[in-house]
């Protein structure tokens, strides 16, 4: 197919099979996320429909990486290429080639909105926030009674991370939102906190990002519960919004923010003062790692395996056609796996291990993330076609993701042991905070 024919096919898929509503700016220069409101899941859906309807396919690594920004980039994926494009290695390490993991500069991972908000204060105080990400790669999610994967659900709370943040860094994180009160009553509490906020204070609130269309995001979920922080400006009709997770800050009309906060899909908020922050004690870091670390199982892979099996077996009246919707939120949870880099980086720097070996483990982390992305595509293909022959590749990809993550955990456990040998006296008995298993 020519480029023009590929462009036409993409337009047909969006308007026909996908019935996409945001097509006014469609063209080669249109940005997929900002102009056409296409998130990572919808881009996968384009790939799938082009493959099934037109026989157009791209290499698996292109499906996994999705490093495309415009419609022109999407068209270019289907152009014949005599030589495969070289993907730069070590995308997560940041800094320069000479610095590596032991330099001052590093890529700041944003994978969990609660963690990003509380850790923002640590960075402002010059403290190392990376140990707090020990628990993020296996942070809790839910599977509904209809076997749907959910990154946010009523039974999921931030209490585990809140308690450990207080113990590690000495910062009191108070939950101001009271689920027993009405939305209006909670809004009144929040307005007072924002008004009285001190110079080093932070007021965190959960809102539905779907109702802030001014804010670009890569997961246009509906609803999209998300934590960010607010403060007043000189204009009483405007708030300054600080979103550490999406690396954005700026002014937004106050009533629009309140509209997103008042949605029935969301509810939550915390207040804390970053001036209280201190360096964690080694004994507490050890206890936190052990409370977080699930050495012998990988909950996300286990959950997706359960979901796929349930859809294949038709449990509770569900069918294969429901599978695509059931795994829609997998990308939101997948990005948490990048938190492994913070774990490796913390121990690598503390132990002064070889930088080159760290880069190798960064490649393993990237391989895990990409395997979960291709798994997502395989699940969508199985669900949309209903072809049970495609179940075998899904389970193969599940096994591969399981193998990669188990390998990462084994190495992390090894360097954790080395760190403990150097930092924790053998006679110390450390109290634990119990982690609630999924």
General description of the model:
The protein has 438 residues and is α+β, with helices and mostly antiparallel strands. It folds into 3 domains: 3-76, ACP-like (Non-ribosomal Peptide Synthetase Peptidyl Carrier Protein, Chain A); 100-111 and 128-142 and 295-327 and 334-423, no CATH class; 172-276. The chain has 15 helices and 8 strands. The strands form 2 sheets. Strands 3-8-4-5-6-7 form a 6-stranded antiparallel beta sheet, sandwiched between helices. Strands 1-2 form a two-stranded antiparallel sheet. It is globular, with a radius of gyration of 23 Å. Residues 83-98 have low confidence and may be disordered.
Q: What attributes does this structure have?
A:
alpha+beta; 45% helix; two-stranded antiparallel ribbon; 438 residues; Non-ribosomal Peptide Synthetase Peptidyl Carrier Protein, Chain A; six-stranded antiparallel beta sheet
Q: How are the SSEs placed, and which strands pair?
A:
Elements: H1 3-17, H2 40-54, H3 60-65, H4 71-76, H5 113-124, E1 142-143, E2 149-150, H6 159-169, E3 174-175, H7 183-196, E4 201-208, E5 225-232, E6 238-243, E7 248-253, H8 254-261, E8 269-273, H9 282-292, H10 299-313, H11 323-326, H12 330-334, H13 339-351, H14 355-385, H15 391-423
Antiparallel strand pairs: 1-2, 3-8, 4-5, 4-8, 5-6, 6-7
Helix pairs in contact: 1-2, 10-15, 13-14, 13-15, 14-15
Strand runs, count = 8
Count the helices. How many?
15
Strand proportion, as a percent range, falls in: 5-15%
> How is the main sheet built?
6 strands, antiparallel
Task: State Rg.
Answer: 23 Å
Helices and strands, in order, run as: HHHHHEEHEHEEEEHEHHHHHHH
> Quaternary status of these chains?
single chain
Number of domains: 3
Mean pLDDT: 88
* Helix-residue proportion: 40-55%
Which residue ranges are poorly predicted, with pLDDT under 50 across at least 5 consecutive positions? 83-98
Distance between the termini: 48 Å
Strand order of the largest sheet: 3-8-4-5-6-7
